[in-house]
């Protein structure tokens, strides 16, 4: 009896000892989850502009601030249509745009255009030498308003509703008119544009500004808008959807120059330069265009 009780006690002790030393296994841990990817949104399209490589290519733009913006241009074109026929076209002038704090806008555009054509008697049907030349000067002052159509977009709109010929001064009592707006953005300085600039899309109806504008498309014809076609007719035509753009420098301004010559062409260069307001046009000037 005692032996059986001892065996029972020993079995109980063994069971308790075994239970007391039993290791409780921790549940297997789940593998660490991958962190959520950080998605970087690209800059909105309206905050970039694709320009010709001559103007820096893809550039970041922002909303312009009030101030004076100006450029002086000197564009020269010279082509041999044939060995006996030479055409020349030059465009000089300046553009000044003031954006006032109160929303008023004032502009002045000056252009001096020279065209010539020389054909020798070897090519002329009448076997005579022919020379044609024409020079025209113009000064146009404009006034209007500027505004920001959207707080989320960098563009401003400049609308002129009064103008005056031969001088920058505009009589505020003149009858107002409707004109499509300039749409402008500010461009930061880059490898091609030496300081902050104002870039304005010019409606083709605004001829006075378009004559001083640029073709900024990625095209071999990038440069002067007024000289976007090669006179010989053998060159590459500009893109059909191309529009004129006015490039103006922050104070003191820009000097834009280019030579579109068939023998010694020089690409568009942009330099910081002092640009004054165009002087009034003398009475005997301005005829012929």
Task: Summarize the structure in words.
By secondary structure, the protein is mostly beta strands. The protein has a domain at 48-75 and 92-113 and 138-272. Helices cover 8% and strands 42% of the residues. The chain has two helices and 14 strands; from the N terminus they run αβββββββββαβββββ. An eight-stranded antiparallel β-barrel has the order 3-4-5-6-7-8-9-12. β4 (85-99) and β5 form a beta hairpin. The radius of gyration is 36 Å and the shape is globular. It starts with a helix and ends in a 17-residue tail after the last strand. Residues 1-26 and 37-46 have low confidence and may be disordered.
Topology (SSEs and partners):
Layout: H1 2-20, E1 48-50, E2 58-62, E3 67-82, E4 85-99, E5 104-119, E6 130-147, E7 156-165, E8 182-187, E9 197-201, H2 207-210, E10 214-215, E11 223-224, E12 244-250, E13 254-261, E14 266-272
Parallel strand pairs: 3-13
Antiparallel strand pairs: 1-2, 2-8, 3-4, 3-12, 4-5, 5-6, 6-7, 7-8, 8-9, 9-12, 10-11, 10-12, 13-14
Can you give the helix content as a percent range?
under 10%
Distance between the termini: 138 Å
pLDDT < 50 stretches: 1-26, 37-46
How are helices and strands ordered from N to C?
A: HEEEEEEEEEHEEEEE
Question: What is Rg?
Answer: 36 Å
How would the global form be characterised?
globular
Beta-strand segment tally: 14
Overall residue-averaged pLDDT value: 81
Biggest beta sheet summary: 8 strands, antiparallel, barrel
Number of helices in the DSSP assignment: 2
Overall structural class, as computed from helix and strand content, comes to: mainly beta
DSSP strand content: 35-45%
